[in-house]
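Work through what follows:
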Amino acid sequence: MSTFHLDILTPYKKYLSKDISFLEVRNEDSVLGILPHHANIITTVSICDMKIRDEEGKETLFAIGGGLLSIKDNVATLMVNSIESQDEIDFPRAERAKQRAMARLEQKLENLDVERAQLALLRATVRINLKK
């Protein structure tokens, strides 16, 4: 099976480095399905669920907190703000984060950073949906 290399980087560490056969992420416009020998590209990635398929065909799901994807010469580098595999997601913690974000948005305080609260809600929702 044909593969390409994927490196996933966070602000704190190299999260993953492995050969895979498929990567699926979202950007503002669409769902991107990346296969081996994809054209070189640099694009943003949204807060979303992400899927990878390894050389044996096993799929793994992740919740990512947005970032950048660069593909060059059959190497994909994904730089994300945050990432959790489906197994790493703490469902009760994600539920609490969702409730906090919803409460902030409902309060409509003058000094509320609405965009930040909306992004927190989106991140929590992605994590919850992936864990269900």
The longest strand covers residues 41-54. The mean pLDDT is 93.
